[in-house]
Amino acid sequence: MEVLKPWCAGSLAKTLNGCESLxxxxxxxxxxxKANGLLVIxxxxxxxxxxxxxxxxxxxxxxxxxxxxxxxxxxxxxxxxDTDDIDAAREYFQREPLPFVTITAEWCKGNxxxxxxxxxxxxxxxxVFDHLDDHRLFCRGIVIDIRLLDPVTNG
Length: 155
Hints:
Blueprint: H1 9-16, E1 19-20, H2 27-35, E2 38-45, E3 48-53, E4 57-60, E5 65-70, E6 73-75, H3 86-95, E7 101-107, E8 115-119, E9 124-130, E10 133-145
Parallel strand pairs: 1-9, 8-10
Antiparallel strand pairs: 2-3, 2-10, 3-4, 5-6, 5-7, 7-8, 9-10
């Protein structure tokens, strides 16, 4: 098995910068992100935000969305879980005190991008161009280091 060199959020964002939509995160880049505890977050279509790397998920985001991530993945709000499911309720309460980051995905906010992704923590941005028109910006995505959400390493 090949040992991957350590990558930081900035170096991965620099590598992703200028990619085309629908080709943002290939298998090799996803493996690099996962091995280094990095999350790559970007608009995938007009109604979907993709999260890849340290974990994979998608968020329905018609006309924009705000959501929270912790070190285990996407945090569901109480109203989004089956409260009759004891395991789901237990997981909710176990994760409730954990540090989290809020991600905001804004659709067509007037800055030249269809999607603008931001976080309330340190992040590194990258630009994605429309796969149908490589001169048009499609998304301003971000890379974050999941270790920011680990209370052991962040005191």
